[in-house]
Design a protein that fits this description.
Blueprint: H1 3-26, E1 30-31, E2 38-39, E3 44-49, E4 54-63, E5 66-69, E6 75-79, E7 84-87, E8 93-100, E9 106-108, E10 112-115, H2 182-201
Parallel strand pairs: 2-10
Antiparallel strand pairs: 1-3, 3-7, 4-5, 4-6, 4-8, 8-9, 8-10
């Protein structure tokens, strides 16, 4: 083996050792990603392992490759030896957690959603199958007979009463002598003869 080959082998070995050390250092602090959506106002426990010293746990949002940190950290001045901290979401959206522990390496969680309970729509399940409804019995009502129109009775003609003829009054000053019956005339004549005879006898 030449000196050049030995030198290259030593350099590769040192590089691999350095990469392994960085990888071990990077993976030493791990924050657990929430497995279910979080809700605004409901307390959540953030858990982490392998983190050293103390530090803040940031709440990040925005583009995956360029995430921004919220103004208020999720947990402030955390003692990483405890392994957890409590956090209450205040805003809905898609977020992740990150921290820089004593090793100086920043670690991130996966993305998770935070929902607003007031805006979450109820789950719609499959619609229940409609049971065939029994046909309703239709009872036919007897048709109404058309009402008979009242027949108009012929109006009675007014009966003309016989008009009694009254004698026309005569002219003023003229004497009216009713015609006497023949029997009455004879009786009157006999009476006159009788009266005359009586007078003569005296």
């Amino acid at each position: 083996m030449t000196r050049t080959s030995a030198g290259l082998l030593l350099a590769c070995t040192l590089a691999l050792a350095s990469i392994s050390a960085v990888s071990a250092q990077t993976a030493s602090c791990v924050i657990a990603t929430p497995q279910q959506p979080l809700k605004i106002g409901e307390q959540y426990t953030i858990t982490f392992t392998g983190c050293q010293g103390r530090g803040n746990i940031q709440q990040r949002f925005g583009d995956v490759m360029n995430q921004s940190a919220s103004e208020t950290p999720a947990c402030v001045d955390v003692d990483f030896s405890l392994g957890y901290c409590t956090y209450t979401p205040q805003k809905a959206g898609s977020f992740s957690f990150s921290t820089i522990d004593g090793s100086g390496v920043e670690t991130f969680t996966g993305r998770f959603p935070i929902n607003d309970p007031k805006q979450v729509l109820p789950k719609t399940g499959p619609k229940p199958k409609a049971h065939p409804s029994k046909p309703k019995k239709v009872t036919k009502k007897p048709a109404k007979k058309p009402a008979k129109k009242p027949t108009k009775k012929p109006a009675k003609k007014p009966v003309k009463k016989p008009v009694k003829k009254t004698a026309k009054p005569g002219k003023p000053g003229a004497s009216h002598t009713p015609k006497a019956h023949p029997a009455q005339v004879m009786k009157a004549q006999k009476r006159a003869l009788y009266d005359l005879a009586t007078v003569l006898v005296r």
